[in-house]
Specification:
The complex is a heterodimer. Helix content of chain A is about 45%, strand content about 15%. Chain A is α/β, with parallel strands linked by helices. Chain A folds into 4 domains: about 70 residues; about 80 residues, no CATH class; about 30 residues, no CATH class; about 160 residues, Rossmann fold, CATH 3.40.50. The longest helix of chain A is centred in the first third of the chain and has 15 residues. Chain B is of the alpha/beta class. In chain B, the strands form 3 sheets. In chain B, strands 2-5-8-1-9 form a 5-stranded parallel beta sheet, with helices on both faces. In chain B, strands 3-4 form a two-stranded antiparallel sheet. Chain B starts with 12 loop residues before the first helix and ends with a helix. The chains are: A alpha/beta, B alpha/beta. At the A-B interface, helix 2, helix 3, helix 10 and helix 11 of A face helix 1, strand 1, helix 4, helix 8 and strand 9 of B.
Chain lengths: ~400, ~280
């Protein structure tokens, strides 16, 4: 039976290995988890899953595989609170309220509705009369006008709640295909790290010193090496304004994370598509522009280039000269992007637009072709994939 | 031998399960989680709860795996040889034991904490694979094998700054300490401040969880910060009424420096408070 569970996990894309599975069986044999499904859930998660971003997927597989099982294996005491709740509800409810529950389809239906709403509801909620939260009139939630309602997040119903701990999917926001925060971005950017020894030789190289001293017939011969630094160099081009307004926050986060991570990082702004000028200060963008050609000539081919932009515009803005929305451009944006690719071999484009929508925007397709298909969504997964390409 | 938390440490069901599984099967346990949720403290408390000796090894960015086993102090030996010290003939005099060796030498089963393993070089965990698997290593200089007399309970913490290699992860149990909910938090506080006035605790907890909900905070206050703050509140003898008043009048909570560690966060919070004051007026 557990073998099926193992394959189910692997089918869901979780890289569970045989060793880990055997560890789990060994733990079962030692009778570490015998009493309840909940214990088994915790044990199997600790033994099989080594990354909190995978917890959510594990919860789903677990919930799916063991659906209905927890009712059989839980001790009978677990059922009591529901009976008790039901009795209490029947005693305390007015006729009118009972009718209301009936209109929802009876008690079982109530529970079912609750589960559904938990699925729908994503955020904390207060007030109102449908969603689960605090202080409302909905039958679900705490501290509401409906004291007989199902209490969520309070001690009384703990036993019931714990059974379904995987159904709550509280690790949902750790799933790596979801939104990202600064710290997560940093971790992803660290894939790019390349340590190299550069600069003045100021650290004692013990091994070499010993070797040289031995060769020197025992007379000290000190050897020094330079300290190790992260030697990766990065050029960032940010699209600002227009279609990027929705994505300012995530770009800010990316920017501040990149700032901390790389010693050699330069950033430039552009609007919609790269043309003959870029700028570093958005307030003075019309006074203080930098010719893109200068940028192309200043930074060596060992720089890695990251474009961040929605690439959502009229296709003309990319392929025709003079089509820019802001000024007369002598050469088409496509030409400039191609120049960038010719100067630096490692170029990627990070796109904050959801990947599902890429196919419907013609300009995204064009840009994607221009950067040699190296366009990645600005999610943690996309970022990691992009970094993997850049560090190859 | 079962770990159930100690009088100073509240362990939730999933955490005790992971600790007990690791302790029973003698496999390392990898702990991750938000900063300030008690990752490092756990090992110490496990040692105390199970009554075992405790060894710790704190990892820095320059730490090498070898340093955990032993170090050959070649420089002193070289100096002694140039001074003609007779000690120099015995190479064992210059082998300095590392935390892992000390731990392997222990007479009873010990608990070893390897703290912040992600700080070290990316290859660091790979260099420890065999040591953690077989619990033995070879001392090249003296040609001896050091073997653990009792397989230690090894607890490893990570802040997720680097990804750990799969081969390493395969050998560990894993637990992610998530942020405690209100019930657990009340238990944790009860353990640390048993004679805290209930009024004050309620007001403080409410304020704390509200603060964590403020959107856009750069650094959400954590458990350890809440505990520090409560300590300060008690030391300053601030009454629950003051707390409540501050909340009602939409002011910064007293001694907010213990909770908000970032001036941008303080400014953000002040702005939000100001806006809601204006809305009320």
């Amino acid at each position: 039976m557990l073998i099926d569970f193992f394959y189910e996990l692997r089918k869901a894309g979780l890289k569970v290995t045989v060793t880990e599975f055997l560890t789990l069986l060994e733990a079962m044999e030692q009778r570490i988890a015998v009493c309840s499904v909940e214990d088994f859930y915790y044990l199997s998660r600790a033994a099989l899953i080594k990354d909190e971003t995978q917890f959510d997927r594990f919860d789903q597989v677990f919930g799916h595989y063991f659906k209905g099982l927890e009712v059989l294996s839980e001790d009978p005491a677990a059922e009591i609170p529901e009976e008790w709740l039901r009795a209490l509800a029947e005693r305390m409810l007015t006729e009118e309220e009972k009718a209301q529950i009936e209109s929802l389809g009876g008690w079982d239906k109530l529970m079912e509705t609750l589960r559904k709403r938990l699925e729908e509801q994503q955020e904390r909620h207060e007030g109102g009369n449908k969603w689960i939260g605090t202080g409302g009139t909905s039958p679900f939630g705490a501290n509401g006008y409906n004291p007989e309602g199902v209490r969520i997040g309070q001690k009384e119903s703990r036993h019931r709640r714990a059974v379904k701990v995987w159904d709550k999917r509280e690790f949902r926001n750790l799933d790596s295909s979801r939104e990202i925060g600064t710290r997560n971005i940093k971790v992803a950017l660290r894939r790019l790290r390349q340590f190299a020894r550069q600069g003045a030789a100021d650290v004692l190289d013990l091994d070499d010193t010993i070797r040289s001293t031995a060769r020197n017939a025992g007379h000290l011969d000190l050897k020094l090496v330079p300290e190790r630094h992260n030697a990766v160099k990065v050029l960032l081009f940010f699209d600002v304004g227009g279609s990027m307004d929705d994505h300012i926050r995530v770009c800010e986060e990316l920017f501040s994370a990149a700032r901390m991570e790389f010693k050699h990082m330069e950033y430039f702004y552009f609007h919609n598509c790269l043309y003959e000028t870029v700028w570093k200060d958005s307030r003075r963008r019309h006074q203080e522009t930098i010719p893109t050609l200068d940028v192309l000539h200043t930074y060596g081919p060992d720089y890695k280039v990251i474009f961040v932009g929605a690439a959502t515009m009229s296709p003309y803005e990319i392929v025709y000269p003079g089509a820019s929305v802001e000024h007369w451009n002598e050469e088409a944006g496509a030409v400039w992007i191609e120049r960038v690719r010719a100067t630096w071999p490692k170029v990627i484009w990070l796109n904050p637009e959801p990947q599902q929508r890429w196919g419907y925007t013609h300009s995204i397709q064009i840009v994607r072709d221009l950067v040699g298909d190296k366009m990645y969504p600005l999610t943690l997964e996309g970022l990691e994939e992009g970094m993997r390409f850049l560090s190859r | 031998m079962r770990f159930e938390g100690t009088e100073n440490y509240v362990a939730t069901g999933d955490l005790t399960m992971a600790v007990n599984a690791a302790a029973t099967l003698r496999r390392p346990l990898l702990i991750k989680g938000e900063p300030g949720t008690g990752k490092t403290l756990l090992a110490e408390e496990v040692a105390r709860g199970l009554g075992l000796p405790f060894y710790e090894w704190h990892i820095k960015s320059t730490t090498k795996a070898q340093q955990g086993l032993y170090e050959y102090d070649a420089v002193s030996r070289l100096r002694d040889s140039q001074l003609g010290d007779p000690k120099v003939n015995e190479i064992a005099n210059y082998i300095v034991k590392g935390p892992l060796w000390h731990c392997f030498d222990s007479d009873v089963q010990p608990v070893l904490l390897i703290d912040e393993i992600d700080k070290a070089d990316i290859e660091f965990p790979n260099d420890l694979l065999r040591e953690l698997d077989r619990m033995e290593f070879f001392v090249y200089e003296t040609q001896q094998v050091v073997k653990a007399r009792h397989r230690p309970v090894i607890i490893i913490t990570s802040n997720n700054e680097k990804e750990l290699p799969d081969a390493f992860l395969r050998r560990c149990f894993f637990h992610y300490i998530s942020f405690p909910d209100k019930d657990v938090m009340a238990q944790i506080i009860g353990v640390h401040f048993p004679d805290l006035k209930r009024e004050l605790l309620r007001e403080a907890m409410e304020l704390f969880f509200e603060l964590r909900e403020v959107p856009g905070l750069k650094k959400k206050p954590s458990t350890s910060e809440l505990l520090d703050w409560l300590k300060l509140l008690m030391a300053e003898d601030i009454s629950p009424d003051t707390l409540r008043e501050n909340t009602q009048r939409k002011l910064l909570p007293p001694l907010y420096g213990a909770l908000l560690k970032n001036e941008q966060d303080v400014q953000l919070f002040e702005r939000l408070m100001f806006m809601s004051r204006r809305k009320d007026a």
